[in-house]
Amino acid sequence: MELGFAPQHLFRLAHSRDYLYLTAEIPKKSGEGKRQIRIPTTELKGVQRAIYKTYLKSVPPSDYAFAFREGYSIVGAAKKIAGRNGLLKVDIRDFFPSITERRVFGLYASLGFNTKVSYILTRLSTFEGCLVQGSPTSPSISNLICKTLDRDLSRFSTRWGLSYLRYSDDMFFWGPKHFSYRKILPFVERIVSDHGFYLNHDKTRYHPPEQPRYVLGLSAHNKDVAIPRVARRNMRAAFFRASRNLKWARDNLNHLSGLAEWHKCVYGKDKTYFEYQRIIRNIMEIQLHEPYEI
């Protein structure tokens, strides 16, 4: 293996894999509750990054995968499905845990690695027998595992006169007008289950034509996608507070930087983005003596 690490070091990490992860909680996209993710230790994460850069990065996923790849983005996916058309969104239940180490082993073997190397790479890429959110290799592996799923769903969509794309565990089907989504759901579910996944029916959504819709965290009713009004208002309020309260601004600097980058992703470097950046620069440049912090 050409990863730049001693073989005995890789064998040790592979053997003790399940002891090399930390647990963290992040808010769910819905805003309700938190999601547990497993984060590899710095030592293991370095090896996983090397695996991604050396072996996985150069292998292209399907053209229908819009997450976890260079040149594609959540905004690009939203623009694809935006507009006044019928739109069906379905969600894969327990996406990463559904990708077992047996499937990961099969992926590495299909890339030309022998049994021994495939086993070591699989151990270094999984935790307790499956992929986990938080590992540098999981996004790319999930896209490659789903390559045949994307192929079959795109072929099915074409037969029904629909278009298809997938953003991680979210799959979208859309057409130029209203379509009977209840008729296609059983076929979609069968294809998904044939590939070892299951749908989360609680997250199935159909957006009829001419009705506003919010997908992937964006307003996508018109061709020009936008950050929802409430979210934009909250962003402006956060930067206004930052401009008035330096201590709060310093404590929330990473969050503010993330908001500014999200705005840039959607709207580009417009007047609002430069105003947000000006506030961030002020926070970073103003040096207050600790006793006088406000």
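[next item in queue]
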Amino acid sequence: MDDIITNVKKALTAVDPTPFFVKYGNNSWAAVKEYQAAQVAYASAPVVKKYTGVLAAADVYTASTTFIILESLRLDLGVGSEVHA
């Protein structure tokens, strides 16, 4: 879990959302979905590499766990939680 949390915190600043919002234009839901998928891939890849063969199903469940941690930390830190009136 520590590795996932560390990598999610890095992903929150390292993955640039711009290309996703440019690509999807007014379809902000698609942009957010793909942006978050990129963050999950960024954060989970090193963990999968480190723990595959060490922890059972590390290659199967790390990405889904990483997404949950991403959402939790993002909300806790107020990243992307702006409310538009």
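[queue empty]
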